[in-house]
Design goal:
With 84 residues, this protein is α+β, with helices and mostly antiparallel strands. 39% of the residues lie in helices and 24% in strands. The protein starts with a helix and ends in a 5-residue tail after the last helix.
Length: 84
């Protein structure tokens, strides 16, 4: 995991929840952690990490992730066993 991925992980677990994290950085983090990212229908993105699966919606038309989606990503990472 590179420094940018580490910064993204810290931002996901930061309190209070941030609302300015680009979705592309989150997808890159999933891949750096060994996850599989695949395209779904429309803006859906399927992610598998440590035998845990989730489906997220890419934000559009903006490129940053809102607080609710970021909390969902945080819960997914915790369930998959990812810690700071």
């Amino acid at each position: 995991m590179n420094a940018k991925n580490r910064k993204t992980l810290n931002s996901i677990f930061h309190n209070p929840v941030k609302s300015d994290l680009p979705w592309k950085d989150i997808e890159n983090l999933f891949i750096a952690l060994g996850g599989e990212v695949s395209e779904g229908r429309g803006s859906r993105v399927r992610v598998a990490l440590n035998n845990v699966r989730a489906v997220f919606h890419r934000p559009h038309p903006q490129k940053v992730t809102d607080k609710g989606a970021l909390l969902s990503v945080r819960r997914f990472l915790i369930t998959a066993g990812v810690k700071l």
